[in-house]
Amino acid sequence: MAASGFTPISLYYSATAAAVPLAANLTAGELSLNTNDGKLYYKNSSNVVTLLASTAGSSGDVVGPASATDNALARFDLTTGKLIQNSVGILSDAGVLTGLTGLTSSGSITLSSLTSGRVTYAGASGLLTDSANMTFDGTSLSVAGLKSSGNVLIGTTTDFTSTTVPGALEVAGYGIYPYVYRGTTNTTDFSGINWYTPTAFSGNNGASSQNLYAGTFMANVQNTGAGGTNRIAAYALLANSAVDSSGVGATVRAQGLQITASRYSATDLSTRTDSSVHGIQLTASHVATAPSTIVSSFVQGLLVNSNNNAGTASSHIGVGSTLVVGTTSGAPVTSSPTAIQFHSTSFAVGLSAGNAATVTTGAAFYATGPTVAATGTMTTYYGLFLGSSSVTGTLTNLYGVYSADTAAINYFGGNTGVGTTTPTSLLQTAGTSAKSAFRTPNIAEVDTISATAATGTINYDVTTQSVLYYTSNASGNFTVNFRGSSGTSLNTMMQTGESISATFLVTNGATAYYNSAVTIDGTSVTPKWQGGTAPTSGNASSTDVYTYVIQKTGSATYVVLASQTKFA
What we know:
568 residues, mainly beta, 6-stranded mixed β-sheet
């Protein structure tokens, strides 16, 4: 109640809880009171209604220590709400919080300077930062690089044995399974797995034997007990290379294994003749400790399967090899006293004492013939093809095929052509305008000598002999029938334009007989006899020699030149 004689001053006010005056209700500097909330408002020069005071803050002053650390976070002391104290937490003007020995939160902590998905680590001065080289999505951890001074276990919690040197890698499941992806514009080489032995490994100058392996692969499978019938396989190295290409202009190469072995140091001074460089050295064996009862269908040092199941391969090669001697310009004199493209260095049986080794069939080189199914087409197949040489330097002796074994038997099952690619006989030679077709200091013909008396029809098989000699006295005039063999006609065996010579020796006693008729494949022919007259008798107590030159002039058409000569 106002004092008597005075006019009360009342502010613009509201008794409604939580009511706040609007800017339109006040002028600049004017006060407004909410009598229900105990809050005093005013309108500032920016035309904004602002809280000036409140009864809620009237519990008392807050008291602090006599001194404090600059930028230290203030903490309440006790529960009165009026005492504050110093702390080790320093909040700089830049908003960096340091000095804490621990941080506990019942909710999420968001660090706005970090990138989602990256792994956080302490960087310089212990400040938290993240790395683009290590990410974690809650399930999978991706690492661009990994270094460890101890064993690294992947896919397993079982460590190596205590004798394993730290730094080893133990991988379960698929083992090392790199997945490499590069964009469509990549033009550089990229490796899923790269083992490199640094040059710092300098060795010991040959003072003792030493092997350095860039990688060692060992597959060990144990088959124990009665066992089943399924296959058990151990692959020390299984390489599967595939290229999925949808571009029409790219050069695509898929190589299962590419190996380069070289001696390259300019200071390589070793002159030991037993030094070697092997691109691939393979050993496949039944080892000495294996029981003699083990059985393998194959023990193969190298097995290559080359398949083209779809598409076009301009050249399809199972095993390819390039041998080059001396290609570097300005290099020192290069010498390979023996250069061999493919070399079978040793073929030995039963070298160890007491080892009764047996080989039924051996071959330094063995190639099966092709199988062309009904849906396949092959124009030409070479069991062995040796291409032409290109020599602009000096090549003293050039051998296409050279067999040094004087005890060896060389066998060719089919027709063999020398100077011709289309032989029609087991051996056919063709000369040129500058070379004769065949040259030999002597030749041996096959004779058939039989204690048989000439009479009736005598089958002369030209594939069996060049000379037929009957040593018993002829018992009657006879017909000579020329044929290839009992199963092959002479017409089938001979080509038009070919001729063949045959000799028949007939023994006569006191009563002489002669060749009265000639047939070829059972069909009568009339020979042209030497002197123009066919013989009408033989020569008693002598050997009559009949010679025949048979020339094929067409299908089943022949000219036969014949002669009879007495030898006594």
